[in-house]
Amino acid sequence: MDLTFTEQQDAFRQEVRAWLEENRPVDDFEPYYTPTGLAQYKDWERSLIDAGYSAPGWPKEYGGLGLDLWGQLIYDEEYARLNLPERINKMGLLHGGPTVMAHGTEEQKAKWLPDLLDNTHIWCQGFSEPDAGSDLAALRTTGRIEGENLILNGQKTWTSFGVIATKMFALVRTDPAAAKHRGISFVVLDLDTPGVEVRPLRQLHGHAGFAEVFFTDAAVPLANVVGPLGEGWRIAQTSLQLERGTGRGVHTRLEHALNEVTHLARRDLDSASMERLGSLKAWTSAFAHASYALTDAMSRGEEKTADASVLKLRQSEIQTAIREEQLALLGGDAELISDVEPDAPLPTMLREYWHSRAGEIFAGTTQIQKNIIAEAGLGLPREPRP
């Protein structure tokens, strides 16, 4: 395994770095669920689109740069290194769009991908439900076939970017009589469809980036089903696997978070803190090298399902440990909320601390990742799936 970057890759890194440093936003952004914040994010997204950096990993025929996995890793590292704004359409650009490319019809690709790439439509993911989170196949939202439509009834929750999204890709049960992991279909729908209601979920830290979405006899064209009816569970794996393993500069973001907490520690650094921070430094370095190794294997076409789950599991553990160290260093200040502006967003560091545990849930819980590692990686027996 050769992890040395080529001259061409180094040149691409310098090109991306120079553009991002020159064009990076100079002002702090308001939350994207506010009118001012959304406008700021969309202006930034327009800059990325004009430069060809909206979805550089997409194939050229769909408007991307056609980067291979190493090129995408370089781009993600440089974006994360500067701690640039979160991509407000990442659920579509990184998950929904590639799933449509892999499983959709030519008509669906032509209809949806251009408007996704330029942010005419912002996509969200409709997977989780109140009683179907880690056990996603237990979902209860139904899609009853009537003529040329699916009639949706049910609820989705913890929908990231749901408060600003205009489209959703969702899993719905189209055959209630089928076995648990069958009879599920993957569908794309407009959120302004009659019978669809989006309600913001405002959390304790003031962030309203999540939403819950209700369907009451919402009619969606059957033509919006991606892949065959009843094959949604298989198709959804494309989206789920894109949330795990390499990508999005995760290792660089972990290093950035640790450096942030280490800088905080300099105010009151004792031997115990030094030991914990040193251990976290070693783990973040190991995680980065493991990310490179997985990228190398995947670039050669190797199937690494278990390895991706190992990285996802360790990512959540390291992320939580970094924020727990932050909590210890902040002491009583960790829970401070302004009584002058109770609705003001928390500083980024505090918000990230409160959000850190989410990494143990999204894209498959810790328990789910351990099951995948046991079965796919270690070959341990599994209970037969119905």
Task: Describe it.
This protein has a four-stranded mixed β-sheet. Strands 2-3-7-6 form a four-stranded antiparallel β-sheet, with no helix packed on it. The chain folds into three domains: 7-88, no CATH class; 123-230, Butyryl-CoA Dehydrogenase, subunit A, domain 2, CATH 2.40.110.10; 243-377, Up-down Bundle (Butyryl-CoA Dehydrogenase, subunit A, domain 3), CATH 1.20.140. The chain is globular, with a radius of gyration of 21 Å. Helix 1 (7-23) packs parallel to helix 3 (69-81). 45% of the residues lie in helices and 13% in strands. Strand 6 and strand 7 (210-221) form a beta hairpin. The chain has 386 residues and is an alpha+beta fold.
CATH 4th-level superfamily of the largest domain: Butyryl-CoA Dehydrogenase, subunit A, domain 3
Number of domains: 3
* Head-to-tail CA distance between termini: 40 Å
Approximately how much beta-strand content do the residues carry?
5-15%
The counted number of beta strands is 8
Residue windows where pLDDT falls under 50 for at least 5 positions: 339-346
Spell the H/E element sequence.
HHHHHEEEEEEEEHHHHHH
Quickly name the level 1 CATH class of the largest domain: Mainly Alpha
Helix % is: 40-55%
Strands side by side in the biggest sheet = 1-4-5-8
- For the record, the CATH architecture of the largest domain stands as Up-down Bundle
Radius of gyration: 21 Å
Q: Could you say which overall geometry the principal axes of the C-alpha atoms support?
A: globular
Q: What do the pLDDT scores average to?
A: 86
Instruction: Please outline the major beta sheet.
Output: 4 strands, mixed
* CATH fold-level assignment of the largest domain: Butyryl-CoA Dehydrogenase, subunit A, domain 3
The assigned structural class equals: alpha+beta
Query: DSSP helix count?
Result: 11
InterPro entries: Acyl-CoA_Oxase/DH_mid-dom, Acyl-CoA_Oxase/DH_mid-dom_sf, AcylCo_DH-like_C, AcylCo_DH/oxidase_C, AcylCoA_DH/ox_N, AcylCoA_DH/ox_N_sf, AcylCoA_DH/oxidase_NM_dom_sf, Mycobact_Acyl-CoA_DH
Domain Acyl-CoA oxidase/dehydrogenase middle: 124-217
Protein name: Acyl-CoA dehydrogenase family protein
Domain Acyl-CoA dehydrogenase/oxidase C-terminal: 230-376
